[in-house]
Fold:
Amino acid sequence: MSELANEPSTRSQTVESGPAVAAPPPRKGKAALSEGKKAERKLGLLLCAPAAIVMLAVTGWPIIYSVWLSLQRYDLRFPDQREFVWFENYAAVLSDGYWWTAFGVTAGLTVVSVVIELVLGMLLALAMHRTLVGRGLIRTVSLIPYGIVTVVAAFSWFYAWDSNTGYLSALFNAESPLTDRFSALAIIILAEVWKTTPFMALLLMAGLALVPDDLLKAASMDGATAWQRFTKVMLPVMKPAILVALLFRTLDAFRIFDNIFVLTKGANDTSSVSMQTYNNLIKGLNLGIGSTMSVLIFIAVAIIAFIFIKLFGASAPGNDPGGKR
Amino acid sequence: MGSTARWRMLAVSGAALMTASTVAACGSDDGMQINVYYAPEENFQSVIDRCNEEANGRYEIVYRKLPRDADGQREQMVRRLAAGDTDLDILGLDVTWVPEFAEAKWLEEWTGQDKQQAEQDVLEGPLTTAEWNGKLYAATKNTNVQLLWYDDTVTPTPPKTWREMIDMAKQLKGEGKPYQVLFTGAQYEGLVVTYNTLVASYGGKILSDDGKSVVMDAGAVDALKLLKEVSSSGITDPSLTNAQEQQVQQGFESPDSKAAFELNWPYVYAAMQDGNPDRAKNFKWARYPGIDGPGRVTIGGYNLAVSAYSEHKPESFEAALCLRSAESQRYSAINDGVPPTIESVYAGDDKEFVEAYPMWETIVEELQDAAVRPLTVVYQNLSTITSKVLSPPQDIDPESTAAELRDQLQKALESKGVLP
Amino acid sequence: MSDTTFVYVPPSTEGKKSKAAASKLTGRKLRWTLVDIVILVYALVPVLWTLSLSFKTAETQTDKSFFPTEWTFQNYRDIFTTNEFIRALVNSIGIAIIATLIAVVLGTMAAYAIARLDFPGKQILVGVSLLIAMFPQVSLVSPLFEMERQLGLFDTWPGLILPYITFALPLAIYTLSAFFREIPWELEKAAKMDGATPAQAFRRVIAPLAAPGVFTTAILVFIFCWNDFLFAISLTSTEASRTVPAALSFFTGASQFEAPTGTISAAAVVITIPIIIFVLFFQRRIVAGLTSGAVKG
Structure:
């Protein structure tokens, strides 16, 4: 148990010392420079090649393939009717009310749950960072929602709200919370927030560790209230961490599937775009329409990521000019 | 180092697991196995055991239980058939899936002697569900029709029409007696079954007879009106939108039940004997209510088909015939409450059958003029869309809901639409 | 929990009014204890509810009480006597471990290069793996389903291991390169100067320093693979490769009309155990791993 309790706060130091260590190691000798540099390049490429190849093979090629599939009429139940139809599938999906309903639900779920997670995550991060009592304990228990299998957690919420088995449905005297659209969406958000708030909190805590203690001390000596210290001192320092957390969680929330699959199966207009793609593909065996949806989701995610990076500029990951990575 | 030791352990246990799993994968390979993929049915294993005895060691039938819900069953078989899986031999198909599976070339046609045996003495309604394009693709295993279940201490004479039932329910509610009308109203196939029954009872049509175009005539619109009325006049369970067969059954069984009427499959009779023996004494059945007289009910049930990818086709046909033989059907009716498709099983002089299955006569009557769900390759899409458009039933607006159905069903028929 | 080493000493206690300060401290401790309790309840209630359902008898399954009124082990007996669950468990463990091993090995190689070496295309690799980390997995389901069907990978272990490796790699690369940047590589040179061979220097000096990071990454990757549902349900169809999360949603009751609440809950508890063990024993490392990769830039 001592390992749990002795939580060293070395994070901030190591992060700060990062760039120094990351600086390229000193060269061995002037004469060997170009030779050594070449070898280094070669080794670098060689070491990265397997990872790069796997990632490209399993994502790059399928994406191209799904664009190809999305331009065809391809229903596994009508194997003889496979043909190239250009953008007909896109027209079918984009002019369909169900698609836009699912899109609206997905966007709504994403925004609401990420906002709640940000607030709760910040509170949890503060608690984990500053608590005087049982720091190891609360860090440990808050990792449980992070680590638990989403489907398992979803079943727990399902049975809690199901009107035949649930203690929560009994507690709130709710007849069928999982089939009424709004209460069902609220439960999906609850399940999503419960599961991912700790992850959000951990990312935020890393940012919290960057806030220098003496700065806070100085601020409080200058008579700043707790709220002022939070908004004026902590938030600016934490901004990069907050943005990264938001970006990660937004894109993650946008692909919500597991919780909806278990909680409502998408009934009563609670379907997400991922759920709908799955239905068209696996239930409907319509590879053309399913691939079209895949491509559209991919584009939507790319747009979200682009907006984040444009809005928040260089502070987004992957855009960092230092070349530390 | 401790950590390298840990790594080694991980690697060793990983390797051990892999060997274990390969060993498990190729376990029993000594005799021929005929895999039956079929919905969970409590006593189906005994039927299989008997057929295995008959096979006398030539093959062994193995029961592979599919998920509980019809969507899950279909999904699993479809995914495996799409991948050309040779492990599937006999498929337990819901009556609505035969056209789709046949069209996709996943089913082996029944011919010659097998065909003759599979058609012999089978009731007409169920038999049509096993055919597609004039060919036989499956053998009927059991049929199913919903009945009206009621409590004869609450309503000594059951209603014959929906109008009567609605009025009775309202009156009972006023008198503070059990009053609810329970039926499957959740967004799933069960809602489509209810709606299809109403449409047929009005003499209406959803699709044309060849299943190629959408009709949605006056009867279909009237059925929407009725469905809305029933759902929105305070005489159903408040959790109607959650009600699948199980909830409907439990709604009548539970000790504090407020239900007077239940529209459900015959299995609830046996379930009631266990679930609430007290109320079981007054638990009676009648024909499903209709518009002017009794209703025309939707046929459910299962057919057994042989997969086109099976490597043991002759044996599979033989095994399937045994699993759905008159003897097997009688056994399943008595023990699992599923109605036979072979006419001669409904024998009034078979004491054991009549005792365990007292509602058999009503079932036969209903089967005489039952309604078959639209036979079409894209039934799954139609069903998904219909249940979506009809949910929740209390929000139906007959004219605009009908228009939406027309539009969406047409797209689905062309497999151009999007599934919700 | 003895936490005395970490008492945060607020500036205001620097004054010598030790009594007042002490009571202030107790007050603060009390408040933090309350906060802790709230967090405990938050994190544990859904888990306890599943645990409770798994111990309820079939008859009391619908009694809506939070705690079981009648206890039984029947649900556990049921899942461990059917092949369905055991096979799924073997699949889950096997697939997750193999995917983790491969992802960690490939990730270590790439992360070492990223942290230590200078080579062209480094930025691109980092960018691409970031993209993949944010990639909508469902976009891959359609093409992978079709491709695996044609290649015969559908419903096999490799059919799941491949996408798992792919989506675990970005996680592995980030976490590991963050760890590797912290390793004082000068030590390696020092060891060599002391006469150690490169192999010895690596084994005695670098490997021990790198091992914790690699181990932490392995845990994170394992949790990721263990958790997956979308690929598991889309790219498998039988016991041959179906993992527990996917198998759960296919559990059947005794008959078509009986809910499998108890067995689902029991199986859910079983697959939560590894997570609880990781969290209990490696909390510090998981926290370090999650926070290191993400907060740069």
In short: Residues 76-294 of chain C form a domain with the MetI-like fold fold (CATH 1.10.3720.10). Chain C has two domains: 4-55, 76-294. Residues 60 and 223 of chain C are 33 Å apart (CA to CA).
